[in-house]
Amino acid sequence: MISDKMQKELNGQIALEGYASYLYLSMASWCRHQGLEGCARFLYRQSDEERMHMLKIFDYLDEVDGRALAPAIKQPPQDFESVRSLFEQVYAHEQKVSTSINKLVTKSLKEDDHSTYNFLQWYVEEQREEEALMRTILDKIRLIGDGPQSLYYIDKEVEAINAQAAAAEGGQGA
Ligand code: FEO
Fold this sequence. Notes:
Ferritin; about 80% helix
């Protein structure tokens, strides 16, 4: 059983995770168009991850006799100023998701909903890892520089980071 209030909050999180999936899909397409195959693979995999984050909440709501709602599709940006600006936007979005998860955790405690509190701990951990991953990429971009001569090296670095992340998940790296 879950309260209407908590169910509404979790549906809000479904929308945020779903939007992240679409945002990263749009970014992957932009990267591919720029010839940044490594960045594209990384973002396609992240997009899949976000969809998985969304579906986990669907399953949870079903388990606690709640109702998960498929969110409206909001159009994400389609063009990006640079690869650096793109990853800054990814990092900012992950910070927004972390803030939202933290608020949900606080609300679950206020509601004495320990089941949802426990469920959300997985997301707390995941957000810590995702923020760290995006910071690693931004640090690499700052070190390499993001002028036209640097894009090849940025792409190789992101490709390597993607392969590591995929291996850690037991996946194929997109
Ligand atoms: Fe599921 Fe990266 O937020």
